[in-house]
Amino acid sequence: MNRFDQFISRQNTNSVRWDKYAKDVIPLWVADMDFAVAECITQALERRIKHPIYGYTHASEELKEAIQDYLLKKYQYTIQKDWLVFIPSVVSGLHMAARNLLKPGEHALIPAPAYHHFQMALEGSKNPFSTYSYVLQNNRWVIDLDAIRKLTLPNTRLLMLCNPHNPGGTVLSASEIAQINAIAQEHQIIICSDEIHADLILDPEKQHIPIGKDIDPDHFTMSLMSLNKTFNFPGIGLGWAVIPNASLRNQFAKDLHTLIPGPNALAFEVSLAAIQGGDAWHNGLLEYLRQNRQIVKTWVDSHASLQMAHLDATYLAWIDATLVNNKQLSQDFVVGGVAVSPGQQFGANDFFRLNFGTNQMLLREALARMSNVLEKN
After folding, report:
1. Contacting residues for 308 by C-beta, under 8 A, at least 6 apart
2. What does the pLDDT look like over 309-322, one tens digit per residue?
């Protein structure tokens, strides 16, 4: 049996995803997966917990060098170890960027639709912001670069990206990255790029490009990265920011270990283990997610009232239900036994996001239940 076909009950584990709704509801909402982690991660945890003291822990030189090698191997991105700032999560990094890199009154640009923490970060920092859009072109969600240019103000200081995009699944091309960097450099704008889904690209011909790759390190760019999503350990969690510019790096990290805690001891261990021993598991995951993407696409195509653009990356299907004309569709799905993420969370009321990072038996059952709901509309 394929390891990803295994059903593992998450009841009685205090799972955020599985405990929110009644036990008979299949939860395909928040973005963690139902797959057992790679054995190398379990082994690393077992080794570490045999030492009975869990004190404050810093990133080892071995981990820093492993990340260097990983970024070079995966993305041909050469970095220095001192460019790394270790944080508890990418979400923390988004909030740190908004709070620490903007002066009062400075303006930011954030994507929409997008993961809700982009907007929450700017609201928390009390800085003005505008949202730039994605538009559908040739069955792909594409950043409206003209909108970015038009929305850029004299006091615009920060541009936030999500690449690969959540929820649209778009992987930015080299041309798109170059144009975004050119806009930022022309207007002296900092780019903060959420790249947590970089290793979840489902199209083999596509390549993730870190925002700071192949440009002058003195330019103001930062990649927020993590293996939490790829290797399915967000409950342990570790993130890092790659910030080549020293002054930007220091500014970003000024409240680390005060308002923002340092990562926990086990987080360093699992990330190192994933880098050193997780390749086979990762390759198997990508193949399984490609199959699940096709299952979801076939299901969407079987319903004339639904549409879904091609998903380059992630395990999060972004589904257009405009033609269903039901403003409470997500609630109706819950009544029908499936929980999805409503589009309102991302700023798109007529959409919903479906997490297909689960075993295929459960996924097919969930889609069948959703079909029953749609047939009643």
Report:
1. 296, 297, 300, 317, 318, 319, 320
2. 999 999 999 999 99
